[in-house]
Write a structure and sequence with these properties.
Elements (H helix, E strand, L loop, with lengths): L6 E5 L2 E5 L5 E4 L13 H23 L6 E10 L7 E12 L4 H15 L1 H7 L3 E10 L1
Parallel strand pairs: 5-6
Antiparallel strand pairs: 1-2, 2-3, 4-5
């Protein structure tokens, strides 16, 4: 299986990239005096990591009949000092909020995503140390 995308330059520092789903994302970077119109390509990688793992976790919890929770993920990427700058360390925090959270099943779902299912997580592990933390916030 392969994925193919097309990215078009829209002028200045703005690029429009499609996705096999048919949706688009705008990407750009900070330019003095210009308003940002898109997402940073590097930060978008962090969003991809959270999205990939989040999809796994929600799907696994659904199969476990766990569906009364809110999930927020925060990802921090630490960049190297020298060019080309890349993430050498990534910290992914999963925040679950709800009443009577089943911590055992939630931890298992996160573990399965991190260790078995999330392909983006595996890609990140090829170039960065990836740390994960699970936080429970009971209402």
């Amino acid at each position: 299986m392969s994925h193919k995308i097309t990215t078009n330059w829209k002028g200045n520092m703005l690029f429009d990239s499609d996705n096999p789903s048919g949706h688009h994302v705008l990407m750009d970077t900070d330019v003095e005096g210009k308003e940002r119109e898109g997402l940073s390509p590097k930060a978008l990688m962090l969003s991809s990591l959270a999205g990939c793992s989040g999809l796994d976790v929600v799907s696994i919890l659904d199969k476990m009949k766990i569906n009364t929770y809110d999930l927020k993920m925060e990802v921090e990427g630490l960049l190297t000092d020298e060019h080309p700058k890349y993430y050498h360390t990534v910290i992914l925090d999963y925040h679950f909020t709800g009443e009577d959270l089943n911590e055992e099943k939630i931890n298992r779902a996160v573990q399965l995503s991190v260790e078995k299912y999330c392909g983006v997580m595996e890609m990140f592990r090829r170039f960065a140390e990836v740390k994960t933390n699970v936080h429970f916030h009971n209402k």
